Amino acid sequence: xxxxxxxxxxxxxxxxxxxxxxxxxxxxxxxxxxxxxxxxxxxxxxxxxxxxxxxxxxxxxxxxxxxxxxxxxxxxxxxxxxxxxxxxxxxxxxxxxxxxxxxxxxxxxxxxxxxxxxxxxxxxxxxxxxxxxxxxxxxxxxxxxxxxxxxxxxxxxxxxxxxxxxxxxxxxxxxxxxxxxxxxxxxxxxxxxxxxxxxxxxxxxxxxxxxxxxxxxxxxxxxxxxxxxxxxxxxxxxxxxxxxxxxxxxxxxxxxxxxxxxxxxxxxxxxxxxxxxxxxxxxxxxxxxxxxxxxxxxxxxxxxxxxxxxxxxxxxxxxxxxxxxxxxxxxxxxxxxxxxxxxxxxxxxxxxxxxxxxxxxxxxxxxxxxxxxxxxxxxxxxxxxxxxxxxxxxxxxxxxxxxxxxxxxxxxxxxxxxxxxxxxxxxxxxxxxxxxxxxxxxxxxxxxxxxxxxxxxxxxxxxxxxxxxxxxxxxxxxxxxxxxxxxxxxxxxxxxxxxxxxxxxxxxxxxxxxxxxxxxxxxxxxxxxxxxxxxxxxxxxxxxxxxxxxxxxxxxxxxxxxxxxxxxxxxxxxxxxxxxxxxxxxxxxxxxxxxxxxxxxxxxxxxxxxxxxxxxxxxxxxxxxxxxxxxxxxxxxxxxxxxxxxxxxxxxxxxxxxxxxxxxxxxxxxxxxxxxxxxxxxxxxxxxxxxxxxxxxxxxxxxxxxxxxxxxxxxxxxxxxxxxxxxxxxxxxxxxxxxxxxxxxxxxxxxxxxxxxxxxxxxxxxxxxxxxxxxxxxxxxxxxxxxxxxxxxxxxxxxxxxxxxxxxxxxxxxxxxxxxxxxxxxxxxxxxxxxxxxxxxxxxxxxxxxxxxxxxxxxxxxxxxxxx
Length: 868
Ligand code: ARG
Ligand code: ZN
Fold this sequence. Notes:
The protein is of the alpha+beta class. Helix content is 39%, strand content 21%. The protein has 27 helices and 31 strands. Strand 10 (119-123) and strand 11 form a beta hairpin. The protein binds arginine (ARG) and zinc ion. Its cofactor is Zn(2+). Aminopeptidase N is involved in the degradation of intracellular peptides generated by protein breakdown during normal growth as well as in response to nutrient starvation. Belongs to the peptidase M1 family. Its EC number is 3.4.11.2. Keywords: Aminopeptidase, Hydrolase, Metal-binding, Metalloprotease, Protease, Zinc.
């Protein structure tokens, strides 16, 4: 028992500490080996830890072990009980005289009471862990930082009836029964790893088994572990895992390195999934899928996340991060890798469109708002707040740009070099870039600004042609906007793929060329351009920038039908739609003819993949339209978008009907069928927008007759935006049919929270009182509160009811689960973008949050930065 006279934590300071990248120091003590012994019980779990510690960098320093929330029971050094330790806030500080010691601690923790879902917690009767970034310290005292790599031995003891399955990292080595109804298992992970990759699971689980033979002929036993009743929905995940293992061998030369690979699905999880060595733990929404309950998008996400976590075995686990400022080293690269995997499973063009759409929906607003930060941040209060679209998705764009600059062969040589040079170590973003330079033979000095400068660069492009003269002049200039803490920016390296097309003949006038714009302004000259050229720029979205060009509606419509780069075709259509919608929002009306013509041409082009057509004819999201306006007027944006939707629906009604009535076959998850379903659902949306008499019937019939969730939810979504009587009936049927399936009930909440109807804010406030709603399950909280926050029209209702609701929910959720609460705050931080009345209402709610007593540092950081 700890001695009562010990110095105990001073109360936490009112302003949480800021951690700076520049303060990095190598660890004072290393821990080459650790053994953990868990006596598992949901109410009181005992953890005995035995650490072999070796002095690292600084001489004379005591051993400092991070901790949080546990009850300390004993401390031994070299086998002898000691009591000269102190607690400094939550850290256990032990003075040690020699160079190497054995330190043992025993603590007690309470998994069942752990509602923040970090450390060891319970999810519907399953005990599981989540340690990234700093959850391991909630399990036992340890140097909880990614540059301390240890070999782990883990022994678990638990009641055999309640917890028949005991899993941990690495390979199982031993186990047995005890005479009191308990049993034990021991696992050993031979690969040194940081504490954030530790995992254990105990529960009554069933397994879908598979096997994979690696490229060197080793047999790996695979297991997807879920509750018995969910077993039938695990085949897709298992298949995706095998595809991922093969893909990483073929594309990156990376082979799996243990004899087993396990994945466990749990219902309560703070984010998507976690790449713990040999034992990935997933949010069940990224594992479970069958046609009746999962949409095509869900299927795609399952495969993408399974791949992502598997790929981390090399980009994250074999090579980890030196410190959390380097988070994008593993996340940006791994997102880039999972995007490549998904692109190879179906249409690469459609995948690129989806990725850019989500970058614009989540990363661009972050980069332009109060929470903007570089891909390698300089400081943070709570690292959990930095698992952002910037670290992940913009980080992936940085890797993509380097791959573009190097070309495929040199990029592969550079990743080979990276894996070889840094295997078994904790590396930095700089280490990665240095490998790109060394193997690629390029100088990336200026490119490094992408890691340190926040903000989305803007490129202005104007193309002039001397009629008859044959010379075309392209003037490019760049500007990087100011972001918090970074008022002045340097010019960056922007890799822009460019091509010119002839306006009359539609022929390409040049080859595609890669322009590296690295000056504030540059001029490019093209000779022998015999007809008026049209500019295709940033093809494939080669740089994550905003392009401002003076291309006319006619030129954009032309590119949308003639560019040979599918992404550029999509992009031209988006730009044309955006220009039209911005004009509509500002002037109250707009000329829709160019958009209608271009959409009509795309719909009737038989050479196009239906999946591409479905993406190309979708209007930009309300939030993205709003981002183009000096001051957001949510009602004007909504009205302009609805007007264009209605007009498109009515003017092209015949084509929508044709697309809707297209070939139908029983459900199959193939790229072709997926595309047809997507196009049909988009067409149904346009038909409903026209107010066509039979639209309600079409939607309801589809809803009732669907043999898959894509069509059922697609119809429900269409109905959700209307006044049709069928809307209420469909929601009722849906609720009762899926009342015992939490993942599908999330869709029921989410679809209502995303409705464009005028009464959505009131409906959402009421839904928060529904007996099936709960803030303790992060998926459910996100389905209602998270979805509502991105519903631009409903959330920004002029009377502020949406702002008040969000703040109320965040304050309540913060007491349960700070990490998830903080994630949902950003919509309130957009206040600068709105009119004075809305601004004041939003600021008032942020101030109320910041003034809440007992606020977590997670929510404090997000709310206080949003007010600055
Ligand atoms: N490394 C995990 C992944 O991206 C996510 C961990 C998120 N952690 C957090 N504290 N938000 O695969
Ligand atoms: Zn990741």
